[in-house]
Write the structure tokens for this entry.
Amino acid sequence: MAATAQTHFQSDERPTSLLSATTLVGPATVFVAAGLLVPLAILFRYSFDKVDARRIMIETFSFDNYVKFFSDPYYTGVLATTLRVAALCTVVCLAMGLPLAYVLARTQSRFKNVLIMLVVLPLFVGNAVRAAGWMTLFGSKGFLNVTLIQLGIITRPLQIMFTEGAVIAGIIAVNLPYMVLTLQSVIEGINRNVEEAAFSLGAGPATMFGRVLLPLSLPGILAGTILTFILGMNAYATPVLLGGPKFKMMGPLVYGQFQLNNWPFGASVAFVLMTATLTLTATANILIQRRFRR
Amino acid sequence: MDALPLVLDLIGTFVFALSGASAGVKRGLDLFGVLVLSFVAGNFGGITRDLMIGAVPPAAISDWRYLAVSLPAGAVTFGWFSGVNRLQSAVLLFDAAGLALFAVSGTQKALAFGLNPAMAALLGMLTGIGGGLVRDVLVTEIPTVLRADLYAVAALAGAAGLPRVASAQAKGRIVVGTWGGDYARLLNKNIEAPLLIKDGWEVVQDQAGDPERRSKMLAEMRLPRGTTDVQGLSAINMFQMHDAGSVLPIDYGKLKNAGNLLPAMKYPYGVGHIYSGKVGVYNPKIITTAPVSYKDVFDPKQGNKVGIIDIQYQYTMVCAALAAGGKVDDLEPGKKLLLECKKAGMRIYPTNEAFAQGLKSEEFGLGVMWKARVVQWQNAGISVTSMTPAEGALAYVSGFVIPKNSPNKEGAYAYLDAMLDKSAQEAFAVDMGYNPTVSNAVVAPDLNKRIGFTPDEIKKLVDLDYNYLNKNDVALKEWWDKELKG
């Protein structure tokens, strides 16, 4: 009996399941390989080439582009700015998003769906359009400055546009919904009873948060943090539109190099950005998981 | 045959060869039999087609690559049947892909040999299903195509789509690389619709920024057939593409309107379409003493009343160089002057539009801009006056080049001729505020006063040193980004 089942299993069932698995996974794999991995590999190869005004680039193999990036304080400065802005935005998003997500997850209100829609709503508007909104708010004749001048609080318009502050505000606004949605879905999965158990055993709200809610929602916090950090590192429209010509982050830098037809350097900047992002998120992931495993 | 159809054809051959070999192995044939079946399944459709249209000897026999692709497929299947068989659904997927590829490439070849579209589609179908047909006959099965009727229908449908595409091309399609927005719209309104489409040309615009289009031209250079017939570029970028060897030398004998073209707009590698000059702009309310030269504009004493535009870095640097007594191929004095201006509070705006916004809100009141654009701003109610600088205004010329591998060179020349037509040139002056590049275009006197230049000013127009700028572009931009903006 067992033997028959075994034969049956081998001759028929296993190939079928493998076949259907191939069929299901195949298209996505081909798509990712052809659309992402192959171009990435090509781009990586470009990053070792040499720029040439006439032929875009000359094929060689040198680390000159990477050396140029790391030996020039201008470019390392751009990387530092990007890291600073992305980190700051992530921290603020977490601080602002956690309470909001908690309320959204625990509310019994009839309007819960409406509230969630309100969080999602900004995502319906493109980044560039949102930046345009900030511009009318921050400009030297924008809403904020005009109001303050009319109220007599300031006499000359504040320079808000084209500063790092404007960019940070813009990116936070873009990223916050992602953080809130991620956290909310995870907190919703935590049984309310464990919180009440903590309270019934005499824990204050702070202790409950620190010892129950925080460790349990850690996967969500991690996912949300990584998501917003990556989005912040790769921001393009917001820094260009709100940061102005003098403010540089990595995304616009990469674009600028390709616009100049300097593909090799653009490619190496892109890989520096990617490596920095991946390294930091992976390290954070490992450190936090190790710390809370106990 | 172009590279892409050949590659598609070879992939199709490989996939069909796999299917042929699988059928052979299932029937217990020996290695030789399997190899024969793989070759037959992969190539017989094509061979039949080639015989029918008289393309002898058939490609599958005269070109070694078809054999080189078919035999390994047979050998792999024979040696590792279980593996290939396990991938059967993947092979089925590729079979469908191979069918599509064959149907299309078969039709294309039949069309190229002058068959009418309906028969070409049938031959395309035959190319797709022929190999499988013979394969099944050899292993004594009723051919799949005759049982599963959808297979042939699919091949026919795939093949039938092509003649329509191809025949549209035969009438004459011109693909125009251009910036999007107003320029593209006006090209259509003033050149394409009234002068080309009416005459039966099909005109397609490939809209993108010029850096993207230039990259594309360079990347396509090695292909025998490019994707565009004319490309709209500024004079410096026309030179860059010429320097890279990617554009056709213009044969002015082929242009009816060449006789009217201003001599300065006759580049050996491209044709000027419109031109304007970099003039000084100022708001009289803020700048009370009217500036008369670039030197008056790039004056550190003006402090934060001066604005420049980030994307105009090349022209701005040359203007500043002229202001500081440098030359078009010696920008060092200009760099020094710009740094002094920056220290004094000069503002940098990211785009032309942001610059206009700043002028409008009176954040600053002095700068340099194309005269044509100033006219547009005045029309929009911005309080701004232009002046032609004493050093001579820098000329801005925008024109078209023909890529060397343009698929339709006749169409490209037709486009250039239409663009130089009197009516089209006059309409561009009215709609865009740029000056005509042909001598027979008539611009109304009051319009000419606002957009044009006096004969004396025209004589003094300064052309950029394209070679110098092209060679130093990356270095200049780096200086601009790091030293001036940093």
In short: Chain A has a mean pLDDT of 87. The first helix of chain A runs from residue 2 to 46. Chain A has one domain: 80-293. Chain A has 13 helices and two strands.
